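Our consortium's second objective concerns turning raw sequence data into structural hypotheses that experimental partners can test. To show how far this objective has progressed, the report includes one record in full. It was chosen at random from the queue rather than selected for favorable results. The single chain below, 91 residues long, was entered without modification.
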Amino acid sequence: MESDKMVRQANQIAQYFSVYPQARAEEGVHGHIRKFWEPRIRTQLIEYVAAGGNGLHELVHTAVDSLRDEPSSGGESGDPAAQQEIGRRAT
């Protein structure tokens, strides 16, 4: 995904949740990105923040810090290759 599009979408999410109390807003942005963004775009966002995160809302920075700290920032349910591997093990 193009970086400017990714930044715009992440900032829209942050703007939506910014009206909530701080803890709820942080949880909302983190949860939305974790649940609805595919793993490779989450990885791209994490790398973008590591490179400075220019133009990102502060709530996105906080969400990325949380995503980075998770055991796996992707692949559990959205990764087709992982699902195929799980299917092979079950048979």
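The partners drew two points from this record. The chain has a mean pLDDT of 84. Residues 52 and 61 are 10 Å apart (CA to CA). Both points have been shared with the crystallography group to help prioritize constructs.
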